[in-house]
Each structure stands twice: as structure tokens, then as C-alpha cells.
């Protein structure tokens, strides 16, 4: 059986790399470098995150994109051949939602695949709920879910749900 490809994307600091690390553990391959601009964190992904995991009977190749728009050429490269997209957004950073919408529109117009939106950082101060994020992004509520990227079970559940959409 051929491996299946899923892509994780979203704005800087939304939790993409955290999600990949929690899912992949020792099998995580990342390309983090010291941030050269004020991003609100010390390091940032400059090319991709990658790893292989099993979801049920399927072998999944998980690719994480960089969040900075200057790396949008990598979004296209990594999305080629993908079966699904998990867009990660930080609920406590509503100012990043316009970027999240651009990323979602950019990727789904070029690569029309099933998608889910995972809202992270819900435990950080005043965070937007998944319902509020769905309303802002003009998406059906069932496409947006709460997601603690630090917890392997939640990250795995999100990918299971995405894979089910992709294989319908």
C-alpha cells in the first residue's frame, strides 16, 4: 500500500512544529533556524517538518510547512500530491486569522483537498473558540476543531479525522 501524504500548515507560531513533534517523537525531522525577524519566538521552520506515522492501516507521510509568507513557494511544493490539509491557527492570536485565511485559500485553490482547521492555544488568555474561528473564516463548524498540539492523542485524533475526510 502506498504511503498517504498529509500537510500541516498555518501562520507562524500556531503550533505546526509542536504538533509534528508530539506526533512523531524521535521520528521528527525539522528545519528550524534562529528567527531573523521579530516573530514572537526564537526559532522558526525555514523549509519543512517531516515524519512518518501509522494511522490505522495507513502509512502517512506528514509534511509541515513554514508559516512565513516569504516561504510560500514551499507551501506549493509540499502540498503537491497531498490527500488532505490540516490548517493550524492559534486561538489567542486573532490578528493571525487573516494570514490563516490567505494560507487556506492559497493552498485549497491550487490543491483542492479536504481540510480541517485546528485551533490551538485555547488555554492562553482570551482565545477565540473554534466556533468563532469558523465564523471568521466562513467555514462550516464541523471543519474547525479544538486542538492541543502538545498532546499526541489530540494531534492524532485530528489527523484521523482528516484522513477519514480524505478517503471518503
* Continuous helix count: 5
> What order do the helices and strands follow?
EHEEEHEHEHEH
Q: Classify the secondary structure makeup into a structural class.
A: alpha/beta
Based on the structure, what is the oligomeric state of the protein chains?
single chain
Number-wise, the strands total 7
Largest sheet: 7 strands, mixed
**Mean pLDDT, nearest integer?**
87
Strand order of the largest sheet: 2-3-4-1-5-6-7
Strand content: 25-35%
Describe the structure.
The protein is of the alpha/beta class and 168 residues long. 32% of the residues lie in helices and 29% in strands. It is built from 5 helices and 7 strands. It has helices at residues 16-24, 72-79, 97-110, 130-137, 152-166, and strands spanning 4-9, 29-34, 43-55, 58-64, 84-90, 115-120, 144-146. Helix 1 packs across helix 5. The protein is globular and about 45 Å long.
Amino acid at each position: 500500500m502506498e504511503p498517504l501524504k498529509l500537510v500541516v500548515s498555518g501562520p507562524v507560531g500556531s503550533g505546526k512544529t509542536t504538533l509534528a513533534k508530539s506526533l512523531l517523537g524521535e521520528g521528527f525531522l525539522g528545519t528550524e533556524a534562529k528567527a531573523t525577524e521579530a516573530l514572537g519566538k526564537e526559532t522558526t521552520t525555514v523549509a519543512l517538518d517531516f515524519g512518518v506515522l501509522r494511522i490505522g492501516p495507513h502509512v502517512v507521510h506528514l509534511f509541515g510547512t513554514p508559516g512565513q509568507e516569504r516561504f510560500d513557494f514551499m507551501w506549493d511544493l509540499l502540498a503537491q500530491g497531498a490527500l488532505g490539509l490540516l490548517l493550524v491557527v492559534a486561538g489567542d492570536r486573532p490578528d493571525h486569522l487573516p494570514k490563516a485565511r490567505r494560507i487556506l485559500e492559497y493552498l485549497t485553490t491550487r490543491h483542492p483537498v479536504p481540510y480541517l482547521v485546528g485551533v490551538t492555544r485555547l488555554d492562553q488568555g482570551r482565545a477565540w473558540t473554534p466556533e468563532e474561528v469558523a465564523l471568521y473564516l466562513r467555514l462550516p463548524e464541523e471543519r474547525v476543531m479544538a486542538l492541543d498540539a502538545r498532546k499526541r492523542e489530540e494531534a492524532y485524533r485530528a489527523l484521523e479525522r482528516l484522513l477519514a475526510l480524505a478517503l471518503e
